[in-house]
Amino acid sequence: LVVAAVMIGIVVRVTFLQTAEAGTLRSAAIDQWTRSVDLPAQRGTVFDRHGNELAMSVPAVTVSINPKLIENGPATVQLLDDLLGLPDEKVNELLLEIASKDRGFVFVQRQADAGIGDQISSMRLAGVNVDRESRREMPGGDTGRSLIGTTNIDGVGIAGLELQYDDVLTGSGGSMRREVAPNGRSIPGSETVTAKPVAGDDLVLTLDRSIQYSTEQVLLEKVSEIGARGATAITMDTDTGEIYSMASVRLDDERGTYEVTKGNFAAVDAYEPGSVAKVITVASALSEGLVTPETSYEVPWRKQHYDDLLKDSHQHPDEWMSVSRILSESSNIGTIFVQQEMGLWMHRDYMAAFGLGSKTALDLPGESTGILKEADDLWGSERVTVSYGQGVSSTSLQLVAAVNTIANRGVYVAPKLVRSIVEADGTVTDTPVSYTHLRAHETIHA
Hints:
The chain is about 35% helix and about 25% strand. It is of the alpha+beta class. Strands 2, 3, 4, 5, 8, 17 and 18 form a seven-stranded mixed β-sheet that branches. The chain has a three-stranded antiparallel β-sheet with strand order 1-6-7. The chain has a three-stranded antiparallel β-sheet with strand order 9-10-11, sandwiched between helices. The longest helix has 18 residues, at about 210-225. The model is unreliable at about 440-445 (pLDDT under 50).
């Protein structure tokens, strides 16, 4: 009876283990001899208008160790050092971790060369792991760096277009399971992909890599020649608003050399446009029919306005100057006369219609709105100096779009930077054409 009772108990227990607890035990067993590994998705590539790669992801590996499983610490670290060229600080850190055996995971190197990773994997070193990842690179060196931006070591956009279009460029990660031996070493050939990663979408920009490179090189040459702190330059298609190049260079104070910047200062930095703004003032008055190119004023070389004595760039006798000549000779006093034909409020509205005081349609990360005060907020001589670009600030991006309105016969065209998006399956979606408006006053009164 006792033996029968024991046998019945065993049968009941076995039945229970094979039914009610089967799933739990199976999962526990899988967890003991398999490991799940995340498979990162390939980040989308950034192309120029001709299909040249501006930013792309290349295969790389992460090398890590489990100090608790390392069999010969000094020899393992020496081998990794020989292959990866580790800094002395890293070598010492690894030796201490292996000696203490307090942690089960320590990074050796991120984004290492994939070929070296294959070498390390083939050695099957106890406690050494090699995992696939990718590394972001710009095939053209620094070309376009100011605009394209960067990613962090995990492939997440942190600046520029890499940040702005991070959701587009980032794909969907997958997963893989692999068997491990009792000592934790991966068993070659046991890998099984449980979910395939889906690559991110590609961006096709309006940039022309050759024009971008030439623009940057000319800027580097010229700022060095004249000893400037830095410079920006933008090339834009008059009709479509497509940006062919947008370059920023600066002096590196520590190195004493000029370089293409990491920051897109053409969209971030705002400064007084100065005499370039005279084009806006004169065009606005012409648009309203308040002056013609032949309208003339008797212009002194200096004149009191509010509490300030304002001057032209050079001394000249009082003389009659046409609007055409005021513009061609860049007369500050003459431009004020033209502005006064419109009045402060109309002039301010025109400057806003030309795009000053607000971000462009690109809405780039960190893009500045510049400074364009309301007419009622202007004080003293500021009320007239805005006519020739003092007391107002704009970015290079705002200014090129504003001046392009003149080149485009009074039609404002919003800047455009992305031509199309290419999905992982090859589907191409063109971005909308740049919005336009005909004349500044039409937008104002609308």
